[in-house]
Specification:
By secondary structure, the chain is of the alpha+beta class. Helix content is 52%, strand content 16%. Helix 2 runs antiparallel to helix 5 and helix 8 crosses helix 9. The N terminus is likely disordered.
Length: 465
Amino acid sequence: MQGTRAVHLETAPAAPETAPAPLEMRPRVGLSLFWRTFLFLSLLLIGCIVAWLQTFRALEFEPRAVQSARQLASLVNLSRAALKYSDSITRVWLIKTLAEEEGVRISPREPRDKFEHFVNDPFSERIGDELTARMGEGTVVARSVNGVPGLWVGFNIDGDAYWLLTDPSRLGPLQGGTWLIWLITAAILSLVGAALIARLINRPLKQLSFAASRMRDGDFDASLLDEQVATSEIREVNIGFNRMAEQLSKIEEDRVIMLAGISHDLRTPLARLRLETEMSVADPEARAHMAADITQLDAIIDKFLDYARPDPPQLASVSLNAIVDAAVYSVGEYADMRVNVSLPGQIVVLADEVELSRVIANLLENARRYGKTPETGIAMVDIAAKERDQWVLIKVRDHGTGVAPQALNNLTKPFFRGDAARTAATGAGLGLAIVERTLHRMGGVFALANTSSGGLAAHIKLRRG
């Protein structure tokens, strides 16, 4: 079978039945810490405003209005007494003086006058009762007479009915509009203040969250926090976090240096072994086996270097179709593998082209080693993709025996091998760990799941390019 391509590309294979369930789970929606703090502060401030308003009405506003009503009743009684005991000439002069000096207008009350009662709520009813109690029965309190607004008080002098018109402000600000404006203004200012306070409180936590996310992605320099903040507790947390980041950075550097050094040191004796094998071993079969073992060791070293690579990927818009075609072409010489590709049109993803090529290659190699169909001994691999919102969902699945459910979460751990892999362990146990690490560095998601018809499915979620 050497020299023939055993990989068959189909444009419409049987649709893989497993939807990317591990990638489609929606996180539970909840309030962020900022909005929780803002909500609690807003409720507290609004409650204080309402309590203050009710306290003011009970202790200051209502007693002052009732006192003003009593003073107005005294003014009406004095005006009535003065008019009652004055002659006609003096009465005209008195009415004119009251209008000019006190802003009080007295006019006869006609039977056809149309008026609107002053009482329309419990508070104004309290004012009306106070005026009636001070001035006697038959007193009428109105808010308008014949369409003229004002505070109208109707009284009698020796059987003659009169109206006394004065400014309603004498009773204090009885209208709710002014207080409503003040209440709305106070509420808005309180909410703005609550937002500023919540943001000020949560800013260190937001910075800590950002630094933790950068450190998770391996960017230790961008994860440093300010150690000169004024708050002592936040300063101590930042100092502790920075020291932890420094230690982790040093450990990461030591790990990379150690793996790179081991890999470099092993390459030289492996090269000598290969040369000595080719020159000194006479048996062609033994020489081929030894060369294969050396090649396998060299491949394991490459896996160590891939896993230890610290450089962040360079993300760009790349063609998923081209990457998959190249990866499938590279396995075209394998007689024990069949690949079916189903990509609807041209799909562009945001990724590092070289890194994503390694991911697809690792998944194909993993399926070839451990995903062969028991009946045929051939690895049947399906590659499918679809676009959803701002994401591209990619699935690489085989038709093998799958993996034990309890081992699924461990497959992406370094050096872990499932039961099927242990029987023919030819790798370093880093393939899926490299895939997950690479995809996370590119802002993607990786998950593994058994299919309902048998086999293992690798689900990849990347942003659209």
